[in-house]
Amino acid sequence: MNIFRRIIILMACDALLLNLAMAVPVIIRFYSSQNPLNYIQYYIIFAPLITLIYITFFYLFNLYNSVWAYASMGELVAIIQAVTLGSLGTIALTYFSYWPLPRSMVVTQWAFTIILIGGSRLAWRVYVEHGKASGCQEGRRALIIGAGDAGAMVARELKGHCNNILPVGFIDDDLNKQRLTVLGLPVLGTREAITQVVKRLNIDLIIIAMPSVNSGVIREMVEICRKTGVEIKILPGMYQIINGHVSINHLRPVQLEDLLHREAVRVDLEEVAGYLKGETVLITGAGGSIGSELCRQVALYKPKKLILFGHGENSIHKIWLELQDKFKEISLEIEIADVRDKPKVNHIFDKHRPGVVFHAAAHKHVPLMEMHPDEAVKTNVIGTLNVSDAADRAGVKVFVMISTDKAVNPSSVMGATKQMAELIIQHRNGVSDTVFTAVRFGNVLGSNGSVVPIFQQQIAKGGPVTVTHPEMKRYFMTIPEAVQLVIQAGAMAQGGEVFILDMGEPVKIVDLAKDMIKFSGLVPDKDIHITFTGIRPGEKLFEELLTTEEGSRTTKHKRIFIAKPLLVDLSALEQCIIELFRKGHRCKREDVFVMLASIIPALKRYQKERVG
After folding, report:
1. Catalytic residues, which ones?
2. Assuming Cys at both sites, which of 64, 136, 175, 219 could form a disulfide with 7, CB separation 3.0 to 4.6 Å?
3. Whole-model pTM above 0.70?
C-alpha cells in the first residue's frame, strides 16, 4: 500500500472515530431530554468542521507517518497532544459561534477521543503481535537474567520474531520486582532461584541482559548459570548496539573478556585525546592486533592525517579498507615498509612530518624469537632505534612505544630485546626535544597468536587443550584496555616514563583453559582433556610488571602507574647497540644476554642459568 493511500484510509478511520467520540457524549447527555433530536442536529452541523480541526492536528503531529505495529509511549503522548490542541480548537470555534451545546461536553469529548484513537492504535499493535506469535512454533525456552530496560528489550525482540526462542520469564535481584510481570512475563525470583527455575520450567537457554553492570557481577552470574548445564548467552553492551557493531538480536556467547578476575579499566579518552585532533599521526605495526585497534581509536578523534606504517601488506590493506569505510573525512596514507630499513624509515618521516607516533611494530612470540634471535634484535632493537632516530630528526612531539611485561627481568630473547628498546627510548628522551615514553602491559586477550584463539581452536577440534605448565601464570588485559592505556600515556607523558596498567592478580593459564571449556558447555578432563607440554625455551612461570629497582609512582588515574627510569651506563648502552649492529644476522641468543647483562646486573643470573 502506497503512503498516500494509507494516509487517506487512516484519516477516514479517524474521522469515524472522532464523530463517534462526539456523538456518544451528546446522546448520553440529552437522551432523557424532551427533544434529543434537536441537539443531535446541532452536533451534525458542527461535526464536519470539528472533524477537520482534529484531523489537521493529527496530521501535524505525524500520527499518519508512524508505524503503529511498533507504537509505544511516545506515540501515546503525541496522540494526547494532538487531541488536546484539537479540543482547544473546538473551544475556540464554540466561543466565536452560536453553540447550543454545553461547552463542558468538549472535555468529555476530549477523553472519549483519546480512548478511541489511542485504543485503535493499541488494538492494531496487539493484532500484529498476536499474528506474529501465532505463526511461530515454540522452540527453545529462554530465561532472561535482568528485568530492566535491556531485559525488556530482549523479551520484546524474542516475542516479536519467529526465531525459535520463547522467553518464559525473568530473574532479577531487585526485591521490588518480585512477583511482578514485564511484557506479560513473570519475574520468577532472584539469582538464588536460577537453578530451581531452570529445572522446573525446562529452560534451554539463559540470556544475561545486564550490559551496564561490571564484569565482576557478570562473572558471578555466569558461574551460577553454568552449574545448570544449559547454554548461556550475553547481551552486548549498549554502546556496541548504538555504534552499529551488533544489533539486539546478536546475542553473543560468553567470552573470556567478560570473566576477567577484575573490573575492566575505563579511561575517559575524551578528556585526554585532545592532542590527537588535527595532528598527523603515524602508527608502526598498524596491521597488528594492537596497531589496528590504535588506528580505530585514534581515528575517532579526528587527526589531520593517519599514516598506516607496516610490513605486512595484507593486514595493512585490511585495516585501511575498514578505516576508509568508517572515517571518510580523515586523510589516510599507507606506507609498506620495514622498521629495520633505516633509509626508508627516514624517508617516510621526512615525507609526512608526523606530530604523534605510536610504535607498535615488534616481534612478540617468545619461542620463535628463541629460535631466531637475530630477527628479534633487528626488529625490536634496531627497528626501535631507527624509528626513534627518525622521530627525533623530524621533530615529532610525542612518541609512545609499546612494550611488554616480558621486558622485566627477561628470561627470553624477546623480553631482552624489549628491555633494550625501553632503554633506547629512555636514553633518546634525554637528548631530544621529542617526548619519548613507553607503555608496558601483559598478555592481550584475543590478539593474534595469543592463548585464547589457540584454546578456541583446540576446543572446536575436540581437544586436547595444551598448557605448558600447571603453575604457569600471566597478567591479562583486553585489547581496548591496552589501547586506552597507550593513548592515555601519550597525554600524560612528560618524557622517559614507562607506564604500567594495574591488571589485578595474574591468572593461571590452566584455569583459563578450564573456564573456556566450561563456557563451551563441556566438562574439563571429561569431554575435553588438558595436557601439559612443558615450559618452552625462554618462558617463565611468572611474569612481573616491575623490578625492585624500578619501583613505581602513582598518576592521576588510579589504575595507571609509572616505573622509575633505570639508571644505566649510557656509554655501555651505546656500545651494546653498536655491537648488535655489527653482529647483525649472526647475533645469537647468548649475545643478547651478555650485552644486556653488562648494562643491567640483574640479568647475569639468567645468563649463568643458560650457560649452566
Report:
1. 406
2. 64
3. no
